[in-house]
Amino acid sequence: MRKYRYISVAGTMGVGKTTLVKIIAKEFGHKPVLENFSANPFLPKFYKDMRRWAFHSQMFFLKEKISQIRQISLMRETKIVQDTPIYEDVFSYAKAQKLLGNMSNDEWKLYFDFYKSFEDDLIRPDRIIFLSASIEGIYQRIAQRTRDYEVKKKKKEFLRYLKVLDGLNRGWIKNIKKKIKIVEIDTEHFDYVKNKKDK
Known about the structure:
By secondary structure, the protein is α/β, with parallel strands linked by helices. It has a single domain (6-198), classed as 3-Layer(aba) Sandwich (Rossmann fold), CATH 3.40.50.300. The chain contains seven helices and five strands, in the order βαβααβααβααβ. α3 (50-74) runs antiparallel to α4 and α4 packs across α7. The N and C termini lie close together (11 Å). 34% of the residues are buried. The model has no long low-confidence stretch (mean pLDDT 91).
């Protein structure tokens, strides 16, 4: 990993992206670029009323990610490890809201057109690390976290949401392989947190 300037870590929410980003930063000297959930004023509202706030929340994340990538492109001499590539924002998180009925056709079109207007100007990661785990395993990890607005939903409904996200992730990963090298890690068999050998 040391030789790659721009690495991005992907995977369904709760799978361990942020943890791996911090490990890579520490072990290989990359600058960590993390998601700033607390900066999104629409996210807590989204978990209370998804149909009302899905578009606002996803547009906020997209705008922030585009700004983030622009900053990364300016740091030419700095090695970067990023939490969540823009492809996951667009083709997993936002698209899930369209499929689940939380974003209208017009909202999705506006969102996607906004993304496409910037797509060609954004630099791509040199490598994407894709983390996977079982849906139940991911749910249990999320249930133990402190972002309480994520787990206030009923388990059955939230598991359905995770399944949609996971399926969409695997779809865009399959497509992006044609352009970017993907490293896949099954986090249920490789414990890079507790097992030093797996690091």
